[in-house]
Design goal:
Blueprint: H1 12-31, H2 38-54, H3 59-71, H4 74-93, H5 95-104, H6 112-127, H7 130-147, H8 152-169, H9 174-182, H10 187-212, H11 222-232, H12 243-253, H13 258-276, H14 281-290, H15 299-305, H16 310-313, H17 315-333, H18 336-343, H19 351-369, H20 372-389, H21 394-406, H22 416-425, H23 429-432, H24 437-452
Length: 459
């Protein structure tokens, strides 16, 4: 992954012990003490420094590994800044509110679960955040399921499936940007390549949700009406606010660089915002840095519009990326990753075994640590060289990182997403897990295609 040479050759026992200590430290901090992952990762870095100094390795060499690891993520850092600006500009222009409004128009009592899945997928794509989608429109759909006396676990499964489809495929999503940047794959190339597994998973899930949807004839859709009325009251719902989306799609198809694509789309959104709203230059700069704040008077709608993004909102993710990459740099400098991979290298001689092992690693990190960012980061760090050895392009790895990393997190009861979703929807993770069809199908399809040798890109 990194062009970092090991300055030490640890024993397998030491490598396993250090890895186990790090995983345990991060897991306990997140699960038991409700900590953000940043602090335990920093302690893990200190642990690795202590091990290196105990082995009488030069401090400067250890520090160089730390810095080299962090430097590998700098291109991703700049991409995250532009993502924050894009989300804020799309909010102030009305682009995202218009997409949400259009999605809500699809809701009807018939095929309820299937339509919930489609609408949450659309809104997830527009917003780029699965948890925001679940906490806003997802809560509305759970309320509707209560009113219609439908299965809450099934409704929650449809909400989670749609939200994480949107999160996974949205160019605004931090996990999507993270997965592509961590292994040096163009953002839009990564999204296109994910389509090979994501689109079949989407349609299979849609058929299942449609088949399980009961025939409902009630017209009690007051919750949706509240959302649509509040959105119309913002004066942000206009057809021309979709122009930034069209620009984004066109530049994506012509394969323009990701940062340029995001910047041009953001500039067009800022210009469109002036058609229906007056902003001072100070207002624009503040929104681009701190994010847009909704003021419809409807708390749930304001929460949906007030993402808290902008450049400032990306700092949490950027800090986590730099810390995790720094830890990865230390693991490579101390030779720990190389030692562990060498131990299982005999199992990683085939394309299918490399894909299966990397997928299981991403799932395992989600289960052990409960953190989707780390499942992406650590899997990318550990397996890039293995993919190269079997002749697979990096975009195959970035796809597996999302298929078995991003979408698995909401299925783990003690994970960040699992705890959050259970809290806001009031449906236990174990209850909706069997019905989160999209999340369950994604890792199965990515491993299946690996064994069949289909949809893979060779170097």
């Amino acid at each position: 992954m990194f062009p970092i040479k090991a300055i030490h050759t640890p024993t397998v026992k030491a490598s396993v012990l250090l890895t186990t200590l790090i995983v345990a430290m991060i897991s306990v901090s997140i699960v038991k003490f409700d900590s953000v992952p940043h602090v335990p990762i920093l302690f893990a870095i200190l642990l690795l420094f202590g091990y290196g100094l105990w082995k009488k390795l030069a401090y400067k060499e250890l520090e160089r590994g730390l810095v080299d690891g962090a430097s590998a993520g700098m291109s991703g850092v700049f991409l995250f800044f532009f993502i924050g600006i894009l989300v804020s500009s799309w909010m102030m222009s009305g682009t995202i509110p218009t997409i949400i409004y259009a999605g809500l128009q699809l809701i009807t009592p018939a095929f309820f679960y299937a339509i919930v899945f489609i609408v949450t997928a659309i809104i997830g794509l527009a917003v780029g955040s699965s948890l925001t989608t679940v906490a806003t429109i997802g809560v509305a759909f759970i309320s509707m399921a209560h009113i219609l006396e439908l299965s809450l676990p099934l409704a929650a499964g449809a909400i989670v499936s749609g939200a994480f489809f949107g999160d996974k495929m949205s160019p605004l999503s931090d996990t999507t940007n993270l997965a592509s940047s961590i292994v040096g794959v163009d953002l839009f190339e990564h999204i296109r390549n994910m389509g090979w597994t994501t689109i079949p998973a989407f349609f299979i899930s849609l058929i299942l949700f449609g088949a399980l949807s009961p025939s409902v004839t009630t017209n009690n859709l007051d919750t949706v009406e509240t959302f649509t009325t509040a959105l119309l009251g913002t004066n942000l719902i206009h057809w021309y606010t979709l122009v930034p989306v069209v620009i984004l799609i066109i530049l994506t198809f012509v394969k323009a660089p990701a940062i340029l694509t995001l910047a041009v789309s953001a500039v067009s959104a800022i210009m469109i915002a002036y058609i229906h709203t007056f902003y001072s230059i100070s207002d624009v700069l503040k929104i681009l840095f701190s994010g847009y704040t909704g003021s419809t008077g409807v708390e749930a709608v304001d929460a949906l519009l007030s993402r808290g993004d902008g450049m400032e909102g990306m700092m949490f993710t950027i800090a986590l990326v730099l810390l995790a990459l720094s830890m990865g740099g230390m693991l490579f400098t101390l030779g720990i990753v190389q030692c562990l991979l060498a131990k299982i290298e005999s199992l990683l001689r085939k394309v299918s075994s490399v894909i299966l092992t990397s997928a299981l690693t991403a799932i395992g990190i989600n289960v052990l640590i409960g953190e989707q960012y780390l499942s992406i980061l650590l899997t990318g760090q550990a397996f890039q060289s293995s993919y190269e050895k079997v002749g697979l392009a990096n975009k195959n790895l970035s796809r597996v990182m999302e298929d078995a990393g991003t979408v698995i997190n909401p299925l783990v009861p003690w994970s960040v997403a699992g705890i959050f979703i259970t809290t806001v929807l009031d449906v236990p993770t174990i209850a909706y897990l069997p019905f989160a069809f999209f999340c369950l199908l994604s890792p199965i399809l990515t491993v299946l295609f690996g064994y069949l040798g289909k949809t893979l890109t060779r170097i």
